[in-house]
Amino acid sequence: MKSVAVVGANLAGGRAVESLRQAGFDGRITLIGEEPWRPYERPPLSKEVLWDPANVPDNFFLHDEAWYAANRIEMRLGTRAEALDLAASAVRLTGGDLVQADRILLTTGGSARKLNMEGADAANVHYLRTRDDATRMATDLRDGARIVIIGMGVIGAEVAASAVKLGCRVTAIEPLAAPMIRALGPQFGQWLGVEHRQRGVDTRFGRGVTAMKVLDGRVTRVELDDGSLVDCDAVVVGVGIVPEISLARDAGIATNNGIIVDRQCRTSSANVFAAGDVAEQDSFFGGHIRQETYQNAADQAQAAALAMLGQEVDYCKPVWYWSDQYDLNIQFCGHIPVQAEVTVRGDMASNAFAAFFQSGETVEGILTVNRAPDMGIGKRLVERRAKAQAVQLSDANVSLRDLLKQAG
Fold it and tell me: Exposed/middle/buried for 262, CB within 10 Å: 0-12, 13-18, 19+?
């Protein structure tokens, strides 16, 4: 193999080109990105970039420009990949340029899902996916501004916390019964809802949006499905992403809710691989899943790089993510089984606890709040499908490390 093209200059794309060089690949690498920015970290977009957009953290970018030059990464930024030419083993760019490569890696991610109603594209309606999105949003998150947040998944909940920090008056609207309920389950979703309310968020759970009232190109009021009206200065929408599968789909590569890959990150086309938010992969617990997490983007990109080099790869990991909201560090690994048995270690009232989700005695999920060391071991309990008794998991005097050793 003499050349690789990576489509998507994001975290996954950036980690992939880094891994190729670290593994000793000396051929040509082309990194193609639609944004004008070199690869950067997305977690700060809902936090530090909103708090102070003029002073992003030093580690916001994966590497400085000199690193890409020193490692001979050809950067094609601000450029859209229009099509894959599988017969020519090439990527066609806007303007007609062809980038030929022996292997192609798709790290195309996704775009923020838009609301389908009048006013959804108004100037003060914000969707958060890119650095430019965050910079625009920050201009409306002023002290005293009335902010309506539609959707309280991870992004909505983090923006709500940032808006409160900036002095905004926040109303959060979520059709489900609690924030992040799909990720945390009902018990801990309800806990997080209380945390937001206690910090001043006007939470409207179990409610949907039926209309947005527009005046002079800006949304001034949001109407809910119970007929109530919420005045606002800006709206933030966090209702998920649409995976960018069009390049693969139009080339005849198998897609579903993402680009389907095997455990070597290979698509149905032998020389095309995919990784990150766009990849539909084997789930650790059976079936298929598309993971929208920082860690999966980084780890799967590295696996894809090694697989493209012909190394043995068997990538299948449980979901692991974190979310920082207010003074809460929330981490989760695994999944919540149907009819899970839930065991709590620590004190929920003090916001320092771990929760274990079991099927029988098998640990299949762990949630930690302000107890990161417990997650360090808890992840391995999940990965090893360790068995433990609830009385052991709840007892702070029983070492989780000892339970891990018992699992072998």
Answer: middle
What is the Cα–Cα distance from 310 to 1, expressed in whole angstroms? 9
**Distance from C-alpha of 389 to C-alpha of 379, rounded to nearest angstrom:** 17
Number of Cβ within 10 Å of residue 260's Cβ equals 20
Residue 30 structure tokens: 């082309």
Q: Collapse the DSSP code of 31 into the 3-class scheme (helix H, G, I; strand E, B; otherwise coil) and give the result.
A: strand
The percent helix, strand, coil of the chain (3-state, each to 5) is 30, 30, 40
Q: At CA 42, angle to CA 48 and CA 220, rounded to 5?
A: 65
Q: Which residues contact 197 (CB under 8 A, 6 or more apart)?
A: 203
Type of residue at 8: G
d(CA 32, CA 92): 11
SS3 category, 249:
helix
Q: What are phi and psi of 187, to 5 degrees?
A: -60, -45
Do 134 and 45 form a contact (C-beta atoms < 8 A)? yes
Q: Of 214, 228, 235, 218, which Cα lies nearest the Cα of 172?
A: 235
DSSP annotation of 151: -
Whether the CB-CB separation of 263 and 275 falls below 8 Å is answered with no
Helix (H) or strand (E) holding 393: helix 390-394
**Residue 345 φ then ψ, to 5°:** -115, 125
User: Could you report the per-residue pLDDT of 320-356, keeping only the tens digit for each?
Assistant: 999 999 999 999 999 999 999 999 999 999 999 999 9
Exposure class string for 294-303: b at 16+ Cβ within 10 A, else e: bbbbbbbbbb
The structure's pTM equals: 0.96
Q: Residue 287: how many CB atoms within 10 A of its CB?
A: 7
Helical (H) or strand (E) element with 296: helix 294-308
> What torsion do the CA atoms of 387, 344, 292, 383 make, to the nearest 10 degrees?
-20
Euclidean distance between CA atoms 37 and 157, whole angstroms: 26
Strand, helix or coil for residue 93: strand
378 touches 367 (CB < 8 A): no
What is the SS3 string spanning 337-406? CCCCEEEEEEEHHHCEEEEEEEECCEEEEEEEECCHHHHHHHHHHHHCCCECCHHHHHCCCCCHHHHHHH
CA–CA gap between residue 194 and residue 192 (Å, rounded): 5
pLDDT in tens, 255-313: 999 999 999 999 999 999 999 999 999 999 999 999 999 999 999 999 999 999 999 99
The secondary structure element, H or E, covering residue 141 is none
